[in-house]
Amino acid sequence: MIDFYTILTAVGNSGDGEGGGFILVLLAAGFVFYGVTYARYRNKKARHKHEKETSALVENVSGYDNKLQHLRGLGSSRMQGANNKKVKGALNQKGNKVAGGLAGQVQGVVNQISRMQ
Amino acid sequence: MQEQQVTGAGVEGVSVPAGPPPVAPGVAEATAGREVTQAVSPPAPAGPTVIQTDEGAKNGQTKCPKCGATEISLNKASGRLRCHFCRVEWAQGQTMGEMGLDDDIRQLVGVVVGSGSKDIIPSVEEVVTFKCSSCGAEVVIDTKESTQARCHWCRNTLSMNQQIPNGAVPDMILPFQLTKAQAQEKIKEFVSKRKAFAHPKFKAEFTTENIMGVYLPYMVVDANARCRLRGQGERLVRTRRVSSGRSSRTVYDADLYDVGREFDLLVDDLTVESSSEKLNQDTTSNTNNIINSIMPFDVKAAVKYDSNYMKGLSSQKRDVNIDALAMVAQAQVKDIARHRINDQIKFYDRGVRWDSEEIAFKGQRWVSSYLPVWLYSYYEPKRNRQGILHYVAVNGRTGKTMGSVPVCQPRLIAVSAVIQLIAIAIVVLFFMVIFS
What we know:
Chain A is of the alpha+beta class.
């Protein structure tokens, strides 16, 4: 008869293997279900994707690309601090510090107008 | 800051062919070690250039061109005005292009504003009085609610089409194209897909009968900008597995570059809310982000403001000036710049970190506009704190629908817990089978 500790150890070790990811997802199934369902009903992250949906043209491009060095053994598949896909102008993004700042400034304007009315 | 290099021998690697950074179409001389500099934006003229958008507009009675009746409203199916008496239909008002509000953005210099976008003067009265030209009675219009009123004596409709600096009459209006029945169908479809975990009170009270057609105030912004982005980018060279003891992990080798891009950006019809209430998109206390998410609108089809387009519909007055909206618009133009230039930096497949983002606005154009939204709203009271007004919104032109449905938390938590327990049981059984 195997005990529960053996199973937990096996689950812990399985994270490194091929099917380990699937088992970990299975172990979080209830939390995932809650999060996905809540997001589908409340749509708190829904917003106009102004960065993609606004019509815009880029012209007269110039620039430079200078190689600095070769980096070995990086741990992440993405560049650390890469921000070329970041959105800072959305008003409903609380996680983004800069957008939070913008939302805060807008809130200041909103409060000012409310006081005037 | 770069990640630490891993020491130790790399085992079997997946090599990515290295190559020189590509010179994308339109990139002029991406030469090593030499930054290409561009002319700085020309000085902007002092003060904004105002385009008068209410020229020829009249307050009072606007009459049917065929029979002279004042019973005029929008036929949402055709997007044209219709006389209720003789049923004749006609298109009223000039388009943005005809009013000079859609000229070539390349030629845009300085700040250009429509006269309906000028600053709101707080002392200007919201309630205005007109004399009915048929019977002489005084008719009061509360511009906070509407720009039309009916004469109590002769029953004629009086309209306010001339702009006063209180934000009630914008430069443009985009007429509804979606009928109420179509919007009801969209809302019903959206909610019916979310009924399983909806709040029981919401389910019992939900009906699309009371949805409202609302013209909400927006600023439509064009921008002619010169952008200069500088930073560093990484190009993947090789992926490999390294092992230490019994475990192994993936590591990446990459080339690091100094990257810079300078370009002209022409932004057409960026749309920003100009009501202080709708600008507040704090999702912990409201669902205004839902209304934001049904954009974009086809604002090119907007026409000169005419109160008759609003008959039977409601509206919200603009209460935010351009100065206050500039920070939102500028942040969004920067986002557009950052995302559009991604096509030119595909070489950096591990990403680019922009350390400096400079945007010089050569020209910008601000046009205030009423845009059409069908709204279903439901107030969910909360214990010990302020309740939340949930919206299901439909774009009155494109039909794009988004909403927030109140959740029955006990039910959702219970079902999630059951799923969690079943999943754990499956994992335990799986390992019991393996180890037995």
